Amino acid sequence: MVQFWDSIPDNLQNWALDQQVFFTASAPLTGKHVNISPKGLPSSTFSIFGPNHAAYVDATGSGSESISHVYENGRITIMFCSFAKSPRIMRFFCMGKVVEWDDPRFDGLLRKMGKERIEGARAVILLDVFKVQTSCGFGVPLLTTAPTSEEGDTVETKPVLLDRDTMGHWSHRKVETNTLLDYQAENNSSSLDGCPGMRSAMRDHGERVWLALMKARIRKIGTQREAVLVGIFLGMALLLSAQIMLRSLGHQG
């Protein structure tokens, strides 16, 4: 169900641009907020330059979460999903850069993207795609239409979202064949970055949960390099201050 690539497959580039909407996800290194934003038609605002390079035009909005997060740590994920008959989800895991509207590179990037200068556009977000993931998309509803009224030869309709039923059918088959827990053990025991996942899946995968949690905690502490460096600097500063104070007291004595 899940496939990974180190670049954007040629046969999926047009599929991504044909979707009705795409989403961006980002988060700060510290804080409580994880941001998810829907964006307009990819064909109008998104461009794929090559297997590992893409960009989108960022319109002025009520917040600037994505821009702030990309400035801080560069991490951003783009997600496309199909609401049409054939389901699919595709994610671009990226490192991003912000090019604001007053940057000399901005107009050139819009031309490279084949986009007109968009009223209210505040930035182009450049994307360095380091991993691509596709999955079934069974849980994404089907967008269709349903009649609301009929007058003579005219039938008015409205858009509706319908459950595909495919996720339930897939799960039912896994339960019937007694393979659901095996699937969870294989796919749900950890995240892409190795963070511990479902505890039951970890146990079924043969892992010692307490050991995995301890390793994750040590890794988390070890990756907080800035905090470690600041701690070392403050420790050295305190030690130096103490030595100066002791020398001063010694001279006074």
From TrEMBL:
Gene3D superfamilies to which the protein is assigned, alphabetical: Electron Transport, Fmn-binding Protein, Chain A
Domain of life: Eukaryota
Keyword Transmembrane helix: yes
InterPro entries in UniProt: Split_barrel_FMN-bd
The protein, known as: Pyridoxamine 5'-phosphate oxidase putative domain-containing protein
Transmembrane segments: 227-246
Keyword vocabulary terms for this entry: Membrane, Transmembrane, Transmembrane helix
Organism this protein belongs to: Alectoria fallacina
